């Protein structure tokens, strides 16, 4: 599984992916530090001395570097609050927009490490404001990956897919996860958000994705079997992908939701080819039992996810796709009624 190799200490190595056990081992290693230990007190004293010396004798660049070194040390010993305080203090000693952006990236790494998505959101907004003052394309592209990860972790899969796709050819954000993980996230988010034509152009035929796809277990089968309508192979790969998603710290909280969305997409694609189809034929196509398909379809129909109905007596599934013009007409009527009610309420207030 290509789990996120996000570390609180700044830049990880390039393309080597961390297994889940390695990832949590590193977390535990950081947590072993005691911020009140004698060794840490001694190290902090040295850093304070370097800061004092830089402020008295050196220039702005050296002062910035001295304060940053202390902030990174707090990150290393997993003292979140002091690290954030020191990063803000370092920002006050920083003039360059690029250096301020780097401080935001350090804060984002720390926020993702602690799954503090409120802090992530605030710093993404802060980074965008900094870019209005200037900033290079490399940092802008890095921010897309951070924002895409935030969107995915907060269940905004549509925006996450768009940001990940934009980042494929410019990816340099190895400090939060390797390139293979970006492809993993891109395929997973795209398959439930893009239409079939867009998925073909941006994902299935994308050279950058094709070079990595085979390195990630089950991912190639998962994507290609879905696109090629090989539903039995898709369900087989789907089971393997489910185990990988369970191991991902950002996708696991949305595991049940994502599983439902994937099944909705694949059932909709299958039924789109038929006006009616027997439940038995559908079960055979997916390599599952008739009872399983019956229960699955009943659940999704009741939730309004699938536009079809089951004739239990005949054992047939009949599709009833909504007419787009009729749907728009009904929405217009509903909005019109809502507007009239608001106007009536307003008129009563004016009369008073």
UniProtKB/TrEMBL annotation:
PROSITE patterns: PCI (PS50250). It holds the Pfam family RPN7_PSMD6_C. Transmembrane segments: none annotated. Keywords: Proteasome. Residues 156-324 form the PCI domain. GO terms for cellular component: proteasome complex. The keyword Cell division does not apply. GO terms for biological process: proteasome-mediated ubiquitin-dependent protein catabolic process. The keyword Repeat does not apply. Belongs to the proteasome subunit S10 family. Acts as a regulatory subunit of the 26S proteasome which is involved in the ATP-dependent degradation of ubiquitinated proteins. PANTHER family: 26S PROTEASOME NON-ATPASE REGULATORY SUBUNIT 6 (PTHR14145:SF1), 26S PROTESOME SUBUNIT 6 (PTHR14145). This is 26S proteasome regulatory subunit RPN7.
């Amino acid at each position: 599984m290509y789990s996120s190799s996000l570390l609180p200490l700044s830049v990880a190595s390039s393309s080597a992916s961390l297994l889940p056990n390695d990832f949590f081992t590193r977390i535990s290693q950081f947590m072993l530090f005691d911020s009140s230990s004698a060794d840490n007190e001694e190290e902090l004293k040295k850093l304070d001395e370097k800061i004092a010396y830089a402020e008295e004798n050196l220039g702005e660049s050296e002062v910035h570097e001295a304060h940053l070194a202390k902030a990174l040390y707090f990150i290393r010993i997993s003292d979140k609050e002091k690290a954030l305080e020191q990063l803000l203090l370092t920002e006050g000693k920083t003039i360059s927009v690029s250096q301020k952006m780097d401080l935001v990236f350090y804060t984002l790494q720390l926020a993702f490490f602690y799954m503090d998505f409120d802090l992530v959101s605030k710093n993404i907004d802060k980074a965008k404001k900094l870019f209005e003052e200037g900033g290079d394309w490399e940092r802008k592209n890095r921010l897309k990956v951070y924002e895409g990860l935030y969107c995915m972790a907060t269940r905004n899969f549509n925006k996450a897919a768009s940001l990940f796709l934009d980042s494929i050819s410019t990816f340099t954000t190895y400090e939060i996860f390797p390139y293979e993980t970006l492809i993993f996230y891109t395929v997973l988010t795209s398959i439930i958000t893009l239409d079939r034509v867009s998925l073909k152009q941006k994902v299935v035929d994308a050279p950058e994705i094709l070079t990595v796809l085979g390195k990630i277990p089950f991912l190639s089968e998962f994507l290609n079997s879905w696109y090629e309508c090989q539903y039995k192979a898709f369900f087989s790969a789907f089971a393997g992908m489910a185990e990988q998603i369970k191991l991902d710290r950002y996708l696991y909280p949305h595991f049940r939701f994502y599983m439902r969305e994937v099944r909705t997409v694949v059932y909709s694609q299958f039924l789109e080819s038929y006006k009616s189809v027997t439940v038995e034929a559908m079960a055979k196509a997916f390599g599952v039992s008739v009872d399983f398909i019956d229960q699955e379809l009943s659940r999704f129909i009741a939730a309004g996810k699938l536009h079809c109905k089951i004739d239990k007596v005949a054992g047939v599934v009949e599709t009833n796709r909504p007419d787009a013009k009729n749907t728009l007409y009904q929405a217009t009527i509903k909005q019109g009624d809502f507007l009239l009610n608001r106007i009536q309420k307003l008129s009563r207030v004016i009369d008073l």
